[in-house]
Write a structure and sequence with these properties.
This protein is of the alpha+beta class. 27% of the residues lie in helices and 28% in strands. The protein is built from 16 helices and 31 strands. Strands 3, 7, 8, 9, 10, 11, 12, 21 and 24 form a 9-stranded mixed beta sheet that branches. A 5-stranded mixed beta sheet has the order 16-14-15-17-20. β30 and β31 form a beta hairpin. It binds one RNA strand through β8, β16, β21, β24 and α12.
Length: 567
RNA sequence: CGGGGCGUGGCGCAGCUUGGUAGCGCGUAUCGUUCGGGACGAUAAGGUCGUGGGUUCAAAUCCCGCCGCCCCGACCA
């Protein structure tokens, strides 16, 4: 491909709004352009990288028996109503009407459609198991897009669906996908950590996420360097030791003016934060006010809290009015004397004697509050975030916390969607059984961004060979002065074009100065930079530079031709 | 949705406080000179100052509304 013809432009200056390296480089090097918040066009270079990432995924899905299909982006709303998600999911799901007034949605994922396909096609146990997958656009109207391509609203996802006769089949499919994912991310040049995860809107019984460690990652991972335990903080369960035993004292109201935060309260009373109880207020999707009580030195984990109260549609922070309506005072709140709220006590709070908690009166707290005696918890559960140094749930060693970006996930779904779709099969026993599903997602664009995050230097992108949009970047210098340079460069380009779609090279035939050409070559990031110039010809051929290592050598022209052909 | 910031040629920005001819660098076009690390000279093109309203003799500048984008918090590949 001639660079002079390529639909692209590189930017000399960093785009002002790109903060992450991947975003900045993909913009600067002319791989992508933004259309709106979280909406991007792929230019030819970006498109080719995406296709290569897809191809790696495709090969590994096929290797475990996956069959590629394609499902629609627009769905009738009824199928989402049938699964219950039409109402369970908020405005993240885009809804609209077609010309006849029928409710439609833009797909965020495709479990419903797979369920219907199974109901249509599968009759007998002999047709199972089956693994289906496709690459398809998802629209998720996220509250906020961020980090360039890391978190967007429209993106292409590889989503695969395993369809099995029974739990053992699902277990096998799940393991097969796990193995495929490990190979995929290895081939893409991504170092991942597999963590246990929350099942979220998918429902189901078990989920893992493949995470790339990155300081800008939005997930917090709880990792144990001793035993290898790894979980998303959303679900990491921490076995906290019993507090020092104390004699239970009688409750006592104390004036604590101006102590609306735990820090100020602890300082005012001269006690550690661990001796206080903190109340946080939330409202569930079905309108219940939830008061979460955790120890002052911990923070509420909303995923755990949401699961503890069975809030299938999630929770949001409560407003001051909602808190007051239940008889509680923000800043001095607790369930003591409150009405109309679901009190959820962290299991450690329930084990901790004589805490300081809010008195629901401005400027006052209670001392010596004991759960069970002073208020009754409607639910007792572990609802706090793990903290650095907490004991590992499996070996007890101190855990560490790291940020991560989710590049893929695997879910054991069960029968939620096949039940909704009526997807059953006749078993060997002659009876009808529900088909058991799993689902497995990988976001393509996010993976591309993560690859750039992991493979770049101060000059630009450094593509791993497996995903580079072109096999090499050919720089011709002095072509208009030395006919031989032009001739050799043209020939190499011809060879590359003849060698196959993915063996093509980028040929910088522009009338630019050497500095511009080298700078662009490094910015664009092809794994090999081939330089043809009077100097290289005098030295015996073509200069071959490894973009990653910087190693360079001059090779005879015939060798380079053979290299391009793939010999 | 809560909080903060920003919208001025393709990119990066200045001008706004104190209203009065719309500027700079880069890029782009043409010509010439250059040609192994973002070359040089000359000439030129290119802007509804996000948008609607208001104040004023006069608005990029002051006031109000709206839209868009970015960042920080609650959601997910």
């Amino acid at each position: 491909m001639r660079l002079s013809q390529l639909f692209f432009t590189s930017l000399r200056d960093d785009p002002g709004e790109a903060e992450m390296a991947s975003h900045r480089l993909l913009l600067r090097a002319g791989y992508v352009r933004q259309l709106g918040s979280g909406i991007y066009s792929l230019l030819p270079l970006g498109f080719r990288v995406n296709k290569r990432v897809e191809q790696v995924i495709r090969e590994e899905q096929d290797r475990i028996g996956g069959q590629e299909i394609e499902m629609p982006v627009v769905h009738p709303a009824d199928i989402w109503r049938a699964s219950g998600r039409y109402d369970a999911i908020g405005s993240e799901l885009a809804r609209f009407k077609d010309r006849n007034g029928r409710d439609m949605v833009l797909a965020m994922t495709h479990e419903e459609v797979v369920g219907l396909l199974l109901a249509d096609v599968v009759k007998s146990w002999r047709q199972l198991p089956v693994m289906l997958y496709h690459f398809q656009t998802k629209w998720r109207d996220e509250p906020r897009a961020r980090g360039g391509l890391i978190r967007v609203r429209e993106f292409v996802m590889k989503d695969a669906y395993s369809c099995d006769r029974d739990q053992a089949g699902l277990d096998a499919s799940y393991e097969a996908q796990k193995g495929a994912y490990i190979r995929i991310f290895e081939r893409l040049g991504l170092e991942t950590v597999v963590v246990g995860a929350d099942v979220g809107i998918m429902g189901g019984s078990l989920a893992h996420e493949f995470m790339v460690l990155n300081a800008a990652g939005e997930d917090v991972l709880v990792l144990c360097e001793t035993c290898g335990y790894a979980a998303n903080r959303q679900i990491a369960r921490i076995p906290r030791p019993d507090p020092e035993p104390e004699e239970t004292l009688s409750r006592e109201e104390v004036a604590t003016p101006g102590t609306t935060t735990i820090a100020s309260l602890a300082a005012f009373l001269g006690i550690p934060e661990a001796k206080t109880a903190k109340a946080a207020f939330f409202v569930t999707g079905d309108g219940r006010l939830v008061t979460a009580i955790v120890r002052g030195d911990h923070e509420v984990n909303e995923t755990k809290l949401s699961n503890a109260v069975g809030a299938s549609t999630g929770i949001r922070p409560a407003t001051v009015e909602e808190i007051k309506a239940a008889g509680m005072e923000p800043g001095y709140g607790s369930p003591i004397g409150a009405k109309g709220t679901v009190a959820v006590a962290d299991e450690l709070v329930a084990r901790s004697p004589n805490l300081v908690a809010g008195a629901n009166r401005e400027g006052f707290h209670f001392k010596n509050v004991n759960v069970g005696r002073d208020f009754t918890a409607d639910v007792t559960a572990e609802i706090t975030n793990a903290q650095e140094g907490d004991p590992c749930p499996t070996c007890g060693s101190p855990v560490i916390l790291r940020n991560g970006i989710e590049v893929g996930n695997i879910f054991k779904l069960g029968t939620k969607f096949t039940d909704a779709a009526g997807a059953t099969y006749l078993g060997e026993d002659g009876r009808e059984h529900p088909i058991i599903m799993g689902s497995y997602g990988i976001g393509i664009g996010r993976n591309v961004a993560c690859i750039v995050e992991a493979h770049h230097d101060d000059k630009g992108i450094v593509w791993p060979e497996e995903v580079a949009p072109y096999a090499a970047h050919l720089v011709a210098i002095g072509a208009n002065k030395d006919p031989q340079v032009n001739e050799v460069a043209e020939r190499l380009h011809e060879v590359a074009r003849g060698a196959g779609y993915w063996r093509d090279i980028l040929y910088d035939d522009r009338d630019e100065s050497p500095g511009v050409k080298f700078t662009d070559a490094e910015l664009l990031g092809m794994p090999w930079i081939l330089t043809v110039s009077p100097r290289s010809l005098a030295a015996g051929g073509v200069e071959v530079t490894n973009r990653a290592t910087g190693e360079r050598s001059t090779r005879p022209i015939e060798d380079v031709e053979a290299l391009i052909r793939g010999a």
